[in-house]
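Ticket #4471: structure export looks truncated?
Reporter: QA, pipeline team
Priority: medium

Steps to reproduce: submit the single chain below to the structure queue and open the exported record.
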Amino acid sequence: MNIRRRHDFIIRSLRRSGTSTVGELASKVGVSKRTILRDISELRDQGFLIDSESGRGGGLQISSQSIQASSRISVIEIFALIISVVSMRAAGTLPFSDFANSGLAKIEKTLPTDKMRDLRRLLDCLYIGQLSSQVDTSDMGMIDLTLLPAFEIAFLEMRLLNFQYRDVKGVTTNRTIEPQAMLILPPLWYLVAWDPTRRDFRHFRMDRISKPEYIETTFRRRYVP
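Actual output as written to the record:
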């Protein structure tokens, strides 16, 4: 479990249980007590009011008043908001773009440093364009909801991504690729990836991808033409 997920888990655990000890959290997360204490210190720096009481019946407690929306929202949720806004703008279907931009800017300004860093890294992988009028979109389907969370780990930690892909003829194959970029040509969304088997870049329509899972194996970032 990476730092970001560990922090989110600690906050959720404290909110649900009311009180929890350092040992209990360490056991649940699978890290040392020292790591949990360091996590608590970092969460306090982010604005969370976490109190500690010693003795029997004591432990860590979090004040509900200290939890800000910017701390609760995840990087991938903000990223989803941004790409939704920019893709709608590219398609010419965003009537209140100024309000959307203003709202996103306020959220970004209150983000902790680590979340802002991750958001920038995801945005660096994002490309927006216009779809050719000759492209047939009559067979466009729904995008798997588990795709974007899988992208978060795959892109930020540069992990291989495995999924099932259905081509234009309806044939489904299993693919393991290196995700390099996301290309949005409204209304179609594409994953741009390096295919180690074919030793070349490939574009995968996201609505044809299913059962995405990231793999522990890492890869290096490549220049996307």
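Status: closed, not a bug. The export was complete when the record was re-opened. Leaving a note from the reviewer for reference: The domain at 3-67 is CATH 1.10.10.10 (Arc Repressor Mutant, subunit A).
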